[in-house]
Amino acid sequence: MSIEKRYRVNNQIRVPQVRVIAADGTMLGVKQTYEAVNIARSAGLDLVEISPTSNPPVCKIMDFNKFLYSEEKKERENKRKQRESELKEIRINPRIAQHDLDTKIRHMEEFLKRNDRVRVSLMFRGREMQHKDLGENLLNSIQSKLSDIAELDGKVNNTGNKIIITLKPKRM
Question: Does the first or last residue of the chain, that is N or C, have fewer Cβ atoms within 10 Å of its Cβ?
Fold first, then answer.
């Protein structure tokens, strides 16, 4: 159970009166705390303080261990659904064949749909450096093909024999 969520149970509840909700969800009304604890114990359950800030505090009659288990289960489920976004890198060169480029773009789409960022590194070798405009056109075409699901993250990084762009998924 997370540290910030602490529930007061049975005799830990120190207020004189509480609003009581029965195990089946019906409202029993405002009762003395000791009376509510006795009702819960006679049913073989616990009195759990659900909302301590309201006036009077709201308490529910339930099996506390089952309640903790279900809360933990919800927390685990939420943690499982959360996924850190990663930075994936795709390397290409300006002489890439069209089919290979389509395959790389398809991979980029998959990464972006999984909420990952994609770094596209365009590597130049030798005399290709004299035709950087071809590489920039290639990166622009990639960016335009992915424009419906991705946007440019930052600026184009042009260092030495590489041109690097980073794409991030668009927020829907």
Answer: C
Q: Which amino acid is at 70?
A: S
Segment 40-87, tens digit of pLDDT? 888 889 888 888 888 888 999 999 889 889 888 988 888 877 777 789
Domains within the chain, CATH numbers bracketed: 10-80 (3.10.20.80), 87-169 (3.30.110.10)
pLDDT in tens, 149-171: 999 988 888 888 899 999 999 87
Q: Are 163 and 92 in contact (CB under 8 A)?
A: no
